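Pasting two entries for a bug report.
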Amino acid sequence: MKKVTTVLFVAILAVTLSGCGGTKTEKINTIPDLKGKVIGALASGASTKNYETMIYNLIGAEPKEIVYFKRGMDVHTALTSGKIDAFPSMNFCANYILKRDETLKMIEVPAKIEGGVIMVVRTEDQLLKEDLDKGITTLQDNGTLNTLESKWITNLSENDPVSEPMPKIEGAKTVYVGVSGDWKPLDYIAADGRPAGYNVAILSEIGKILNINFEFVSIEADARFTALFSKKIDVIFYHFQSSNTDYFDEFKNPNWIGTKPYYSYKGGCFIVKK
């Protein structure tokens, strides 16, 4: 009887451990390890069908589930708390996150990931688009763009750079800019409550050149185009990829136009727990 009881206990223990293991207790070290895992995603306004296709193409297999979140910080929290197994990112964003959270690591995808960052305005605001392009060109020509890229992206340390308050230009027009803060270090809300990051720093300089006041409005990523078209804001930031075009082409719309790119990136990855 004792032997039977022991065997029964071992069997129950095996089933219990098997049930508790799941996807979140296994180490993820390679892209194939993401098969059957729970992937977190930032809701961007794109269709779930296109997003799921993109994830499938990146990992070469079906994930167990894709869970969508409204804010980037919620995706991060879900990973550290074990609610998801991984989430996709561009390498430059991952570098920012990993310098601030040593419990995480990134696994680069073999697929070619290249893209850039632009500002988007309503089609009717052609003059604003042209002004922004002039500002970007000026910053490129005088070297300021390279300096800001080095400060906010390339050589970013564990501590965020100090964000200078954007000066108010007396009598100048005000342009409202949507900030989601979901793609750090491009833009985010700093500890002091002020918008900060590469995008914000660029507009601060362009404001001086064009004699324009830029005022930042917090907006969720998946609501940014709706807010733009309803004229709650005048400018949004948008990153695109020359790869994964099916996913990004979904956002193309005759009602908006984009500036020239002012930042280019290469490399994509998934962020997972160590």
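Entry 2 (this is the one that rendered wrong in the viewer):
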Amino acid sequence: MSEIKNICVYCGSSTGDDPIYAKAAEKLGVALAQAGIGLVFGGGSCGLMGVLARAALAHGGKVTGVIPGFLDETEVALRTVTELKVVSDMHTRKRLMFEKADAFIGLPGGLGTLEELTEQLTWIQLGRHAKPLVIADIGGFWRPLLSLFAHMRNAGFIRPDYEVRYMVAERIEDVLPMLRAAAQHPKKEKTAATIIGERF
């Protein structure tokens, strides 16, 4: 059994067009703080990143931001976080976020969020780590991606012996219980095919 002390959350530097995304980010930030779990995120003050981090901080949470120097000009680093790491490039950012996290959550976001999320899924698929990962499918945002994964599987590009292990939650309330259950019973992790749409 491994304890989850810090969770890395990937999410957008925009809030998106539907208020449901920002509400979910805020609710997650509060939940992490109340659970005593540290937040590791991309360090930006805008979009879902800012909403998430500010909510965690407002409720006494520990927040670590990791941002490349060049992005500080566009995403503007949130200076009020517990710990802010300004790094040289994206690769260093992603490595540091990975090292500081015991689990991962993918909230809605754009290309950067997608790239970070799929990199972790690839590492899990290749056996590089066994940290649990939840895709927060808020308002069905990630449904096209999940359909693409199924298409890849059906087309023979995701072989049964290289199945991607992840969990899907449609409600923020389900995210932490799912991660905790996966951390306590890592050998009982289910495959994506059996966990999509599962409720706790």
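Dev reply: Rendering is fixed now. As a check, the viewer should reflect this: The chain is about 40% helix and 15% strand.
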